[in-house]
Specification:
Blueprint lengths: L1 H8 L14 E3 L1 H4 L8 H12 L4 E4 L1 H7 L8 E4 L3 H7 L3 E4 L5 E6 L6 E7 L10 E2 L8 H4 L4 E3 L5 E4 L5 H6 L8 E4 L4 E4 L3 H7 L1 E2 L5 H7 L2 H13 L2 E2 L1 H4 L2 H4 L8 H12 L4 H10 L11 H7 L6 H19 L6 H22 L4 H16 L6 H19 L5 H5 L5 H13 L5 H12 L2 H10 L60
Parallel strand pairs: 3-6, 7-8, 12-13
Antiparallel strand pairs: 1-11, 2-3, 2-10, 4-5, 5-6, 8-9, 10-11
């Protein structure tokens, strides 16, 4: 405080953490952005704010993708209106966040709804002007409650809600290619840091000193890897140099943030390339703590070739689906990555004498708690992953009403896709996957014929020994009767035959959506 006072008296000013840059307005003739690629709702948000007298631009990754001729997946808007002013202009708008207060403007309802994220231009503050707290995001919640700009001892920004001009907002963004602003009404791009030039060269360059910027937000270490893999960009040498040295800063980032970044990384459509880049930077395999799930999956790959093959097939399948514009559920990806953890625990429990089904349940719960932990959306994620895993033994039993009940389950297609990957990896019978594919698509008559195919001599059913009993399906009483360990036939139960859900021409549900 005394030093600041003396510097002020002497007229000294603190050196800015990042260069402010210079405003350059690039016209349509130079940037060539196709307005048809721009989301109508994003344009509507910009127009509403402009009509109310505020500045408003599409910003960040959306502008970068538009310059590359790509249709952005998400559109963000930046404005000089405060969150409260933005909220007042839209019927369905919600202020969220503590570290960064932003507004979600919602269009549509249900699964088809769209969210346009609106942020207020933020000021660049020198570290000396920030309020410092002793702990981190978790340990200093009370101390952070009334602060607008605060950092921890390492320089990581814990609060950043001081508004400023657009030139400041551009300076505080991470990479030059993410610091451009597009006005869809005037069709100009505002560029302060040579982002258009770097986008054309396909280079990721940090704005300002990379070490300082990584300390402000260590998640930028992950973002640079993700963007490089997703866009096929090279990382500027100065931007790349400090990554290994500063990777330990990620240990203090809340697990929910690193988990979200991992999911984004796996959903880029370039998951295999992203993981390879993480390996190159020493962020997985060699060290633990950044992405515990990836560490488990990738560590000692030579010792577990079956796991490695299965995960690579799953990630390649995920990349294919993303590039085809199909949805990918995080629960499906994580279920694939942790499946062999479940198998290992399951086998150990069965060897100790635990009945198969309780052993499987215990394994599922233990793996989820150990690898996923306490993150946002945990309940839904757990339910979906559990359903995929517990569905696998049900595919082994093609008797009675079991197959008809199974194909009616909402998550059937996700469970089947999981079975198909297991078959491709050589850990499940390919013929079993083929049978279920045909059964799910068949009409009533063909399903009857497929059921006949699995009958043994004398009309008895062929039985594939099930490794464990599945959880009872919704509306399926207690599920199919388990086979006795001695091989005796199960006790028959009279039950009304369900009308099959599939009929001729009926399409299967969307895959692992």
């Amino acid at each position: 405080m005394i030093k600041k006072f003396i510097d002020k008296l002497l007229g000294k000013t603190a050196k800015p953490a990042v260069p402010k840059g210079k405003r350059v307005e690039v016209p349509l003739a130079e940037h060539n952005i196709d307005l048809k690629l721009v989301d109508d709702n994003a344009i509507r948000v910009v127009k509403t704010l402009a009509d109310a007298g505020y500045e408003a631009y599409i910003v960040g990754g959306a502008v970068r993708d538009l310059l590359l001729g790509l249709r952005p997946k998400d559109f963000d808007v930046a404005t000089n209106a405060t969150p409260e002013q933005v909220k007042a202009l839209f019927r369905r708008a919600f202020i969220i966040g503590r570290r960064f207060r932003i507004v979600h403007v919602v269009f549509g309802r249900g699964r088809e709804h769209e969210v346009i994220e609106v942020s207020t231009f933020r000021a660049v503050l020198d570290a000396s002007a920030s309020e410092q707290v002793a702990g981190n995001e978790k340990t200093s919640k009370a101390e952070l409650a009334d602060k607008h700009h605060a950092v921890d001892a390492s320089g990581r920004v814990l609060r950043d809600n001081v508004w400023g001009p657009q030139i400041d907002d551009a300076a505080r963004r991470d990479f030059t290619v993410n610091a451009m602003y597009y006005d869809p009404q005037k069709q100009i791009v505002v560029d302060y840091h040579g982002g258009i030039k770097d986008a054309k060269k396909k280079v990721l360059r940090m704005i300002g000193d990379p070490v300082t910027r990584y300390r402000e937000d260590p998640v930028r270490i992950v973002r640079v890897v993700r963007f490089a893999a997703k866009l096929g960009f090279t990382i500027d040498p100065k931007t790349r140099a400090p990554i290994r040295e500063l990777a330990g800063l990620l240990d203090d980032v809340p697990a929910s943030r690193t988990f979200d970044e991992m999911i984004k990384l796996l959903q880029t459509g370039h998951a295999l390339a992203s993981i390879e880049e993480l390996r190159n930077q020493g962020l997985v395999g060699e060290r633990t703590g950044v992405f515990p799930i990836l560490d488990v999956v990738l560590a000692d790959a030579n010792k577990h070739p079956e796991r490695q093959k299965f995960v690579e097939l799953a990630l390649a399948d995920t990349d294919r689906r993303v590039n085809e514009g199909k949805p990918v559920a995080p629960s499906f990806m994580l279920a694939c990555m942790l499946w062999h953890d479940v198998l290992d625990r399951w086998e150990k429990l069965k060897k100790k004498g635990e009945p198969p089904f309780p052993a499987l349940q215990q394994s599922v719960d233990a793996v989820f708690d150990a690898r996923i932990g306490d993150i946002s959306g945990r309940g839904k994620l757990a339910a979906d992953m559990r359903e995929i895993w517990l569905m696998q033994p049900r595919f082994e039993r093609r008797t009675g009403n079991g197959p008809f009940a199974l194909v009616e389950q909402p998550r059937f297609r996700a469970g089947f896709d999981f079975l198909r990957l297991r078959a491709d990896a050589g850990e499940s019978d390919p013929e079993l996957a083929r049978w279920w594919e045909e059964f799910s698509l068949a009409d009533e008559d063909k399903r009857a014929r497929l059921m006949e195919q699995v009958r043994g001599p004398g009309g008895s059913r062929k039985r594939t020994p099930a490794p464990a009993a599945p959880a009872a399906a919704e509306g399926d009483a207690e599920g199919e009767t388990l086979e006795a360990s001695s091989g005796d036939a199960p006790r028959k139960r009279r039950r009304r035959r369900r009308k099959p859900a599939g009929a001729a021409g009926t399409a299967t549900p969307p895959s692992n959506a």
